[in-house]
Amino acid sequence: MAKKTGNSKVKEKPNADRLIAIYMDHVLEHEKTPKSVYKFTKDNGLTEADFYKFFGSFEGLRKAIWEKFFDNSTEVMEKSKEYATFSNREKLLTFFYTFFEVLTANRSYVLYTLNEHGQSLKTMDQLKTLRKRMKNFGKELIADNNREKSLKVFQQNEMLFSEGVWVQFLFLLKFWMDDNSAAFESTDVAIEKSVNTVFDVFDNTPLERVVDFGKFLWKERMA
């Protein structure tokens, strides 16, 4: 029987997904982010060349993790035959439900990385690439809707809506981080009410849902 040589932690050929999995596991096991690429790769049976082939820094890798969460969510949605027939409201609801399911599956890592330095979510560098992806998603939803409207006066502002989707996500992310309800049911309710509110405001429909949403937030935050 051949003897094992060197660090045998990594048996698979490294790729971007594998490096992301190793990094997330490393952070959770050591309860801290690695200080150097050299030490991180050595501890995990890799070389620095293995790492730099896919990422220029830990900062780039952390951004890629959030992009991966986004890609996983959209892939799951688009596999559904019904998704293409959904209204824009239903598509945004489905996206947020799916995205937060992905976050919940990785909750320990997400909570650690977002709380590590006590920064405001709005200023976190690791979310910058996700912000672009999510805003583009929101912009595409409204662009599709606008194409169906012959008169410009009835078309919606794509940039304003896309920024609204991002702000909405930040609110929901903070809500989910603080959510102590079973199976994060309160987050599901917040997603439904916030998405309906956004679309109601943009569609200039009655504001009953705005009032309902406000009552919900008051109840949750003051409980």
From TrEMBL:
Question: Which InterPro entries does the UniProt record give?
Answer: Tet_transcr_reg_TetR-rel_C_sf, TetR_C_23
Name of the protein in question: TetR/AcrR family transcriptional regulator
Q: Which residues form the Tetracyclin repressor-like C-terminal domain?
A: 91-217
**What organism does the record attribute this protein to?**
Christiangramia aestuarii
Q: What span is annotated as the signal peptide, if there is one?
A: none
* Short name of any one Pfam family annotated for the protein: TetR_C_23
